[in-house]
Automatic annotation (TrEMBL):
UniProt-listed NCBIfam families: GGDEF
Superkingdom of the organism of origin: Bacteria
Species for this entry: Kurthia zopfii
Keywords attached to this entry: Membrane, Transmembrane, Transmembrane helix
Name of the gene encoding the protein in the UniProt record: cph2_2
Gene Ontology CC: plasma membrane
Sample GO molecular function, one term: diguanylate cyclase activity
Keyword Transmembrane helix: yes
Transmembrane segments annotated in the record for this chain: 12-34, 206-228, 235-257, 269-287, 299-316, 322-343, 355-378, 384-403
Classification via InterPro entries: 7TMR_DISM_rcpt_extracell_dom1 (IPR011623), Diguanylate_Cyclase (IPR050469), Galactose-bd-like_sf (IPR008979), GGDEF_dom (IPR000160), Nucleotide_cyclase (IPR029787), Rev_trsase/Diguanyl_cyclase (IPR043128)
Protein name per Swiss-Prot or TrEMBL: Bacteriophytochrome cph2
Amino acid sequence: MEFWEGVGVLNVWKMISIVFISLIFTLNIAPFIASAQKAQIDFSEGNYDDFREDLNGGWTFFPDQYLTPEKVKKELKNNKGIDVKAPYFIKPKYREMKGLGTYSTVISLPDDFVGKWLQLYIPIQLSNYKVFIDDQLLTENKQNILMNTASDRSIQTPSPIFLVHDRKLRVTYQMVDFPVENAGIRKSMMIGNEKAIKKYTDQQDFLHIFLIGGITLIGMISLVLYIFKREERSFIAFSLFCFLTSTWGFFTDAYLVTVFYDGIEWATAVRFAYLLPELVILLYLYYLTITFEDAVNKWAMVFYYVVMWITIVITITTETVVFQNTFVFANILLTPFYIYFFISILRKVNWKNRLEILTLIGISLVFLASLHDIYQIMISGNSIHYTFLALAVFIAIQCFILSREFALQWSEIECLNTELVKWNETLDEKIKIRTAKLEESNMKLRSLALLDGLTGAFNRHYFNKNYENLFQKHLEVGEPFSVLIIDVDEFKKYNDYYGHIEGDKLLRKLVDVLIKNLPISAQFTRYGGEEFAILLDRMGFEELEQLAEQLREVTEQLQLPHLGRDRGVVTISIGGISLHNSYYDDALEVLKIADEQLYLAKNSGRNQVKIKNLG
């Protein structure tokens, strides 16, 4: 509280407002800047195998006109149409007329795309439409586009494929507007290789379903806690809040509900898309009033509840345009309340309590995301439901806090039980137990000090120590020994392509395979990054060459995919030395020679073995 009083409510709110307004302006100004050039989108530098691009950019829009591709060309010759940047929704001044519209643009593709197949992915657009590539009809979401009736409209995401005949394609999007706000090309269409688009959409769906599943699970846990502790209202409020949030996830812009029921009508889906967030935010604020008791004035909350319940009733009982406009109006009306609510929570936060600060971070994310989404609904068509994502973060934070509180309580109970046991033990028994635990911990620490945490192999410290011992033994009694250094070829490209998590998995896989192909006496260590070193006592040059070649072949035969490099599979390069009766007396010099052999193998085209016999 001292921090809050020192900074001042007004100054903090000014900072938050400036950051928010700047963010919103940056995110949303692009769709409304008229293009000063001809309507075209250039993808001439694309690569076919991973080609996937949003059709954002220059389009020509013909309001209140339903034009064929041929008519579009004639209109463009007469300099007709409005240059816009997609995504672009029909403004009210156009929608109040005939409710028709045509978009057109020219796409430039690389020359090698001619004769190949591409896919056009059209996310859910709240309008009837036909899409043409050049003069050919590619897809439509209704048999008779000019019949503007609501009975047969369903949520659809068509993904037609087509053969590219020319590097320049004209895309024409004919549209009959639905009676909803923000109609038009409100979501970015995509063009690309069918596999690339499927990979992208699958990833998006997986993330969304993962969030929905996680939120549902948290809600179930909270519900179970409420069953056993019914005096805690926060458990049931949080549980219902989680269930409604996860249900809302099926009706955000992705409309995942169509995965399970593709026959749902657009009007029903849109109604749920508005009704669910209204209920979610209602329960969200109710939960916060329980968590931060007496933070918000009672009559202010009554005002909010009255406005929201009226909005909910209108959403359930009226036509689409009515409840959409009501939603926008209600949120504009409640904006001062939301600001007041947020400031009230800020004043209530105990700044010395880290958990309350963590909760405040989650609340702030939801607050800013909600304002962003409301702004998008009023201004922009290509909205992203940041509120849903922010609520998922908030729920995760609350789950963490709840888990921590239970863990602390459980730890406290365990500590009390441990103390009772200790009081019943003799002093000698206590000393023995503590001594045994200390020895066990020391053994674990000694073991961990020599092992690599990622792969389980010995670490660099172990290598340095044992290499010095072997070299000293060689100098004293003349026993031969060898060193191999292994490098995973183009591992950085593997990480860039697959990510560091998959890179770590690859290293663990290679370590397991390589160790299985080594003699028992070999000492396998992680030398650093993607490099590994092997110490081999009493092994001569010829035997060493055979072993190194075997390790290289085993790795290549695994055929582990590496699409980030030209070869396409994972390989290793190996360098090494064999030391027998040489006159080397500098251990670092010998190790440097082994390292030079590794670089020679890599510079020779990789997937090579280079061993030097030092005599």
